[in-house]
Amino acid sequence: MSQKVLDALTTAHAAAIERTESQHGDEIAWVKRDQLVAVATWLKNDPAMAFDAPVFCTCIDRLDWRPLGVAPSQHWSEDKPRFEVCYQLRSSKHRHRVRLKIAVPEHDARLPSLAGLWPAFDWQERETFDMYGIKFEGHPDLRRIYLYEEFVGYPLRKDYPKEKRQPLVRRDDLTRSTSSVGKEK
Amino acid sequence: MPAGLAIAFAIGFCGLFTALAVFIGPKRTNPEKLKPFECGSEPIGSPRGRYSVRFYQVAILFLVFDIEAAFMYPWAVLYNQLSKTDPDGAGPLPAQISMFGFAEMLLFVGILVVALAYVWRKKAIGWE
Amino acid sequence: MGVEITTTRLSDAALWAKAAKQSKLDQVTNWGRKFSLFSYPFVTACCGMEFMSVAAPKYDLARFGAEFPRFSPRQSDLLMVVGTITEKQGPALKRVYDQMAEPKWVIAFGVCASTGGFYQNYHAMPGCDQVIPVDVYIPGCPPRPEQVLDALIMLMDRIQAGRGHSQLAIKREQIIASAAQDEG
Amino acid sequence: MADAQSLRQLVLGRKDVQDLSDTEQDLPPDLMTVNMGPSHPAMHGTVRIVLTVDGEKVVKSDVQPGYLHRCFEKESEHATYTQIFPYTDRLNYVSPMINNVGWAMVAEKLMSIGKDIPKRAEYIRVIVSEMSRITDHLTCVGASAMELGAFGPFLFFLKCREWLYELLEIVSGARLTHTYVRVGGVSKDLPAGFDERLTHTLDEIEKVMVEVEGLLNNNKIFRDRMAGIGAMTREEAIATGCVGPIARACGVDYDVRKDYPYSIYPEVEFDVPVGTTGDCLDRYLVRLEEMRQSIRILRQCLKQIPDGPVMIDDPRCALPPKVDTYNTIESMIRHFKHIVDGIKVPAGETYAFVEGGNGELGFFVVADGTGRPYKAYCRSPSFVHLSTASQLIHGHLIADIVPIFGMINMIGGECDK
User: Fold this and answer.
1) A151 touching D, CB under 8 A?
2) pTM greater than 0.80 (yes/no)
3) pLDDT band at D14 (very low <50, low <70, confident <90, very high)
4) DSSP state of B86
5) Best label site of D10, D50, D79, D82, fewest CB within 10 Å?
């Protein structure tokens, strides 16, 4: 029933919307990066849309994206942008939902921040920055939220090994008598 | 129990246990242990800064009413004798109940209630 | 799978324990200590729910004299590390352990505190013994309250025998100090 | 003359008479920065607040979560769909069953088999979810009452929680980390005699709730510490994405079980309590009322539960029955492939959400057709509620942080994922 959201979106912002799709009952709209703030403010303030409730903001790293049973053209390749930032919004009045997705290339992982429009995205964007390294411009204070400042790298990227620890403190009187199998790579 | 003996016992016991703790207790200090405990994080800011005088007010007022409560303990213990006309029960007549003990404490608490009313009106207790 | 296998060098601890036999005074003080443990609950994760159940009326911790949690390391001698210790929590745990008065003991409550459990990743520490010496490990995720009471009794035996890590450390220093005096 | 003056000033340390204006301005006390650190009983052990206080009043606060970040996403990229159930247990470990149901629903939505889950399995899921929701509210209200000094209600509510833990242990085998739900149904059927024991326990819990309400509701100390503390308006709640009891306390009538009904919630009637002022007292009252509604749902479910299988017999996600596994080679291979490679979820992405103990708990999963999810993001209500904490604390006393944090019910595992 949110199909009308996508139709309204495409009519109002034809230029800003690259394409729309609907998967498993969720409406997805791909938005161009530079017109994201315009589309978002319209979605929030337009009485017919009234998306006043933010749900979540996260990022998908498409580095080794080779899904089974899908044409190879869909697989990820160097020329395609690596990151996709997703904002999920919900309207508490009309009860419809939409997910804005923005393609972000790896070399300049920048994005205008939506923390001004919905305060909930303040921390969620900090989390996305902490985990994926997407810099949100205009964010009040963009710093790591989960990890400690001394942490180097962005752990949720596909190329960061799961067990690569960067310990802050270890016991000094502990002598590692036995070799540790597969020390940090 | 003569008072002097009681005081001696009190000082003796306290002295004994502090002496035991000082001499027998293991003392191993390291720089980490001497730092103030701030829930596990590095202590920030210095306690030497100037902070509001309200803390001192609240502490003093607590002291006043705490000691008032402390004075009630000996009174409560001796309440029975205080309420009898001849406390040591020497006379032939059965002891009647006298209001001496109760009135005494009422006076004591009454004074402090006046103080409490004054402090309450001056808002020295709250934190506005 | 980078698994850090670390074993505290217990061999020298055993050597010092043998060398220093328990004097009568030690046995009496250890007897007093073991029945009046004040625990500092360093609670972080799901084991905290089971820690509540252990302290609650059904599996009462008070029966063993270890019920009264003290939320300041100055007044506690048993550090219960309850739940997952992450890298960011490491310095806080080490500082709380250092600020406790000797002799002190540590119980690793649950498999996350003992070995990191099934969180083998960049932020979960493989066991709190990477940071502080642990006396009793409790397996289980979360361990059943009976396991916790059993671990407490195990710790009491260890305290009575004077084989806690900090007890051995104090003993070792006394022996070194006395040895130095003999030569000096 | 000059040095005598300065000498006097030196000795007395007093200012010169001319310097004093008619009234001595009281110098503003310096602001003190204090750590309400990770290891603090009111902070549930996993949040650090750097407080800038003027005396007792909080002027500025920097809330730092992340002390229990256990990398749910990174771990779930290396585990099959069924192996992720234990991780979801430990997200909101106060109501673990609801996380299991949430994760199962997102996988079923991706495989689009949500409609043909057997009715009995759906009923069992609702029963265990509502039991878990009651334990969540019991723990939250009990613990925050204890943090305000009321130790009695804490022990009463923990006694009730023990009864529910025993029942959940009979159902799933574990007191806290159940791992009971599977994609396509539940792993085991309810044991015999379960509904008599559950009805008996529910009556007992209602008696205890009456007792605790008698103790707390009109208790002067409790009301003074809770009423008017940490209030939040309706618009703020919606804009900051607050959900669950906290949003309902502000008057936002949003409950996923009513607004986006899933499973068999349309078949049971229950009401959604909504507060007015949005302060800690309303959150407490909303949680108590929700416990009553959950008990009401449980009673209806126990009456309406049909018989039948508890697992869908779709070969893609259900294990073959044991007798076939040991007798026919095909079932053995299917059993082996199912366990080792995991359930083949077709490629796609979706966001499924349930009404958790603290509100809308959702999973945003991107599947790539293999047995392991490509990305599994958990939208956790505690993380969103914690982001409003510094704004709620502002202007209150340090002692008010404790009830605010108690009523936000920030669960470390879910907040730091």
Assistant:
1) no
2) yes
3) low
4) S
5) D10
